[in-house]
Amino acid sequence: MNAPDRYEAILLAPGENKIDVDVDTRLPSAAIFTFHKEDHTLANMLRTRLLKTSHVIFSAYRVPHPLTPNFQLRVQTDGEITPRDAVINACQALIKDLGILSREFTKEYELRKMANAANQQQAAVE
Prior knowledge:
- The N and C termini lie far apart (61 Å).
- It is built from two helices and four strands; from the N terminus they run ββαββα.
- Strands 1-2-4-3 form a four-stranded antiparallel β-sheet, with helices on one face.
- Helix 1 (40-51) crosses helix 2 (83-125).
- The longest helix has 43 residues, at 83-125.
- The chain has a single domain (6-125), classed as Gyrase A, domain 2 (2-Layer Sandwich).
- By secondary structure, the chain is of the alpha+beta class.
- 44% of the residues lie in helices and 21% in strands.
């Protein structure tokens, strides 16, 4: 079969960078970030978070080929901050948001578990 081994889609090769940055000389304050071993999940979250940032003018991503786990993220800012700083800030905000989501999910799960246990005890008493 011609398909690559599954581990090649998640493990970086020796000397391979997770992110490559190329400054886009055609536009002011623009850069193209190539993320290796990542897919639409991270790309769409980053793009959405970047577009919520006040200094970001443009943010979009593309996947060059569906069989390779890479995507390119293009970011253009208004010049107040660099595209690199915008991506770093978006990543930090995403980590914070995902932490809140994890805590809230765990809290709701535990509350649901306690409610189910209370309902089962009440049903056993009746």
